[in-house]
């Protein structure tokens, strides 16, 4: 299972929209466009597919911690 699969599963499990994911990434000072983000969720054989690197996943997970803590206050 690669980062793209993990990202897809987290997105579904946490019921996150694109805007939520962009906001979460911004919490860890990582900027990404909606187009760049959607490339991670495409099928591998799609021409616009992009591999989700470790840096994106790390920033998403760090931002997710901040995002979830803020919701619990």
Give your account of this protein's structure.
The chain has 73 residues and is mostly helical. The chain has one domain (3-71). 63% of the residues lie in helices and 0% in strands. It has helices at residues 3-13, 18-27, 34-40, 54-71. The model has no long low-confidence stretch (mean pLDDT 95).
Comma- or semicolon-separated keywords:
single chain; 73 residues; mainly alpha; 63% helix; globular
Question: What structural class should be given to the helix and strand makeup?
Answer: mainly alpha
Weakly predicted, low-confidence segments: none
Helix content: 55-70%
Our count of domains comes out at 1
Q: How many angstroms separate the termini?
A: 33 Å
- Secondary-structure element order, as H and E? HHHH
Shape: globular
Largest sheet report? none
Q: How large is the radius of gyration?
A: 12 Å
Mean pLDDT over the residues: 95
Q: What is the percentage of strand-forming residues?
A: under 5%
The total of beta strands comes to: 0
Supply the number of helical segments: 4
Quick recap:
The chain is mainly α and 73 residues long.
Topology:
Elements (H helix, E strand, L loop, with lengths): L2 H11 L4 H10 L6 H7 L13 H18 L2
Helix pairs in contact: 2-4
